[in-house]
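Why does residue order matter? Because the sequence determines the fold. Keep that principle in mind as you read this record.
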Amino acid sequence: MISLKQKKIPMRSCVVTKEKYPKKELIRVVKDNAGNVSVDVTGKVNGHGAYIKKDLDVLKLARKNKVLDKYLNCDVNDEIYKELEKIIDSNN
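Structure:
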């Protein structure tokens, strides 16, 4: 009998809710070595990353409490939040 090995699903923690989710349910925000912050839709960009759940309420909470600013040690501008909002809207 051949047993099929199940593929392991990578889990990551949301920096806002601290809950673990499959990587596909989260969006990664990255600060590269030059200090530039961007939204990483591929999940493969080099740099320090922070994962956030694809949920508008979670995004609002992150913006209000400046969670991404604290986690990435820099100011995350409004353009990043607008881009995250577009990604979340397109998924719903």
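The chain has a mean pLDDT of 92.
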